[in-house]
Amino acid sequence: MAGNSRKQKKKNKRLRKDRLLLLLVPVLLVGGLIWFGVNKLNPLHLKSTHYIAEYKSEFKPLDNLKSLFMDSTEKVSVEGKVDTETVGDYDMNYVYDGKKYPFVVSVRDTAAPEIKVKDYTTDTTETIKAENFIDSITDASTYSIKMDNREDTKEAGTFKITISATDQYGNESEKSARLIRKEDKQAPSLEGFEKQISLMQGQEYTSDSYKAVDNLDSSPTSYCDTSHLDVTVPGTYNVDFTVRDRSDNQATYTQTVTVVEDPDYGKSTCYLTFDDGPSQNTLKILDILDQYEVKATFFVIGTHPEEYDIMKEIVDHGHTIALHTFSHDYASLYSSEEAYFDDLEKIAKVVKDQTGIEPDCIRFPGGSSNTISAEYSPGLMNKLTKAVQERGYQYFDWNGDSTDASGNNVPVEQLIANATSGIGTEKINILFHDTDAKNTTVEALPSIIQAYKDAGYIFKGVSKDGFAPHHAVNN
């Protein structure tokens, strides 16, 4: 009997479950039909009727679309346009199956500035600024910076500094850094200082290459006393440098300057310089220079290998051979600093192979004042004028011009007049060109040389430590 009772209970339980399932099926079916009907009638769902887009961040047209019932979002079109570069409210519509779903996109700046800070070490004297601790700040809008340095006592120690940035929409962030103050007892040093140097008589003395540096003061002062130096009189002189930091630590460096006698000092000097050779006219020019017993300089290029052997003739006649680049092609050699030096090194190799000489004097095509280089690499000449000297070269522009570059067969009388207009200038570097087409330059040369001789000039080739006219750099 007990066994039958248990079986009956199980049977009754199954019956109850079956009845419940029979009741749930219609309910679920009706619920599903209702859900399907609602979504069929209103298939597109928005994330929000008032969507917030971040200022100056990308907003994609479908960013506010939450879902689309049983269809592709490619069938949804968008009415309206959002400009995330401008804060404001923009009315938008999604259009699907002929129905519009309106919403508003509000472009707002809700992001606080992102601050990266750094610790700062200084002495006990400096008045600190917020900028000392800021590595970077980024934000979509303008911002202001504040610094909380209330803990700073200007004594040796470590102090907490708080930097805060608030943008124009009131979003604020802050970061903390350490201010490390140390008692400074170390005097600055003089970077690049040379205890002894030599100058040719009359050569300008410059201290620009020496820089005061300090362990804690980023801008120590340097004073150079040249009151006892006279570069016009041969002899030995002392030049004193005094360097000082803001903590009043100071040191003195004494440099011995030897002024070497120049037998030509005080005499007017003419530097005849010829660009773009060697050419078929070079030997004619050398004959004229020999005839008048004067020296000149040839800034050579490498585009005429059939004339390379003349480079040796230039040197054998006692003239200065210098570099003017291999190609003289502005677009190529002025495309970058690397391209310029590749070209320069190429002509340097040719000259060394032909003459055994490694020139240290150069002339930029177009001169250091050229502007054409800006078409290929803005700011390049500012870099090159420094870089060539750092590599051991001296560059030469000119302060006299024959104007033979203005065309071929410029009238002889015009060349003479232009080239001799510099008479009266103590040191004159005259620009000529040595190419196959410059026949009138050759014809004018004797009269030009004679005019300068009659005016008492001596003639020299350029040298790295000699007179080097430099133009104002325009790129």
What does this molecule look like?
One of its GO terms (molecular function) is hydrolase activity, acting on carbon-nitrogen (but not peptide) bonds. This is NodB homology domain-containing protein. There is one protein chain. By secondary structure, this protein is α/β, with parallel strands linked by helices. It folds into four domains: 44-108, Immunoglobulin-like, CATH 2.60.40; 114-181, Immunoglobulin-like, CATH 2.60.40; 189-260, Immunoglobulin-like, CATH 2.60.40; 269-459, Alpha-Beta Barrel (TIM Barrel), CATH 3.20.20.370. 24% of the residues lie in helices and 30% in strands. It is built from eight helices and 26 strands. Strand 19 (269-277), helix 2 (282-292) and strand 20 form a beta-alpha-beta unit. Helix 2 packs parallel to helix 8 and helix 7 runs parallel beside helix 8. It is elongated. The N and C termini lie far apart (113 Å).
